TrEMBL record:
The keyword Magnesium does not apply. GO terms for molecular function: phosphatase activity. It comes from the Bacteria. The keyword Hydrolase applies. Keywords: Hydrolase. InterPro entries: HAD-like_sf (IPR036412), HAD-SF_hydro_IIA (IPR006357), HAD_sf (IPR023214). This is HAD hydrolase-like protein. GO terms for cellular component: cytoplasm. It holds the Pfam family Hydrolase_like.
Length: 251
């Protein structure tokens, strides 16, 4: 896989660049190599681009907000574009703050839409409320379908998909809308920020069900990294292989 053949890179966050507060091997090297050709494209539904950029800076990684596309904020942007949305939002304080200026009516007694993100305070009473709201006709939007993401201690961290699973255990035939990977909308939001040929884009991730499946829908090449699913154990291994391919091509 010759890296210089690509005009753009869409790189996942958790399991590729970081794991919790741990910077993974090759993360800084990839950001330095790709520069503004790289967009961090993540199903993260806790941060905003601004808060994630600041968090990464504390870890020694430079990624300005305009090079970050996240499922949580993308879901809120999408709902704001619909217009007239009365929203029941289950989300972090950062996402709630992001939603405030978007013109969404939050926490209405009779919402038209419910948005699930990775809300660490979500509990049994919230589940009962969601079931009741959906039964009364509210539409369910879900930031991402991921059940978990890799934690720094090797333990999986519950994600938005685990909250969705709880809802579906009660309403198995429920129709709902997913915003994040593998759906195409999140990729299109990233592509408009790249200046190169949209056909010459490489997706980098660690999850076959979201990263690889999403790339396949858009017709992108995909590199999977990580000990569990990847052809490459980490980004260091991936970059070394890409440089080796370049040297091979020159001979």
């Amino acid at each position: 896989m010759h890296l210089d053949a690509y005009d753009g890179f869409l790189c996942d966050l958790d399991g590729c660049l970081i794991s919790g507060t741990t910077v993974l091997p090759g993360a800084k090297a990839l950001l330095d190599y790709a520069g503004d050709r790289l967009i961090i494209l993540s199903n993260n539904s806790t941060d905003t681009p601004a808060t994630l950029s600041a968090r990464l800076k504390q870890l020694g990684l430079s990624a300005p907000p305009e090079r970050i596309v996240l499922a949580g904020t993308a879901a809120l942007d999408h709902l704001a574009q619909i217009g007239g949305v009365r929203l029941r939002l289950y989300a972090s304080a950062d996402l709630r703050a992001y939603a405030q200026p978007l013109g969404l009516s939050l926490d209405s007694a009779e919402p038209t839409h419910v948005l699930l993100t990775r809300d660490e305070t979500f509990g049994y009473s919230d589940l009962r409320d969601v079931i009741a709201l959906l039964a009364r006709g509210a539409e369910l939007f879900v930031a991402n379908p991921d059940e978990s993401h890799p934690g720094p201690d090797g333990m999986p961290v519950p994600e938005t998909g685990s909250l969705l699973a709880a809802v579906l255990s009660v309403l198995p035939d429920l129709r709902y809308t997913v915003i994040g990977k593998p759906e195409a909308g999140l990729y299109h939001a990233a592509l408009v920020r790249l200046s190169g040929d949209p056909r010459r884009v490489l997706a980098i991730g660690d999850n076959p069900k979201t990263d690889a499946a999403g790339a396949a829908r858009l017709g992108f090449d995909c590199a999977l990294v990580g000990a569990d699913h990847g052809e490459w154990t980490d980004l260091d291994h991936f970059l070394a292989a890409g440089r080796a391919d370049k040297r091979h091509a020159q001979h």
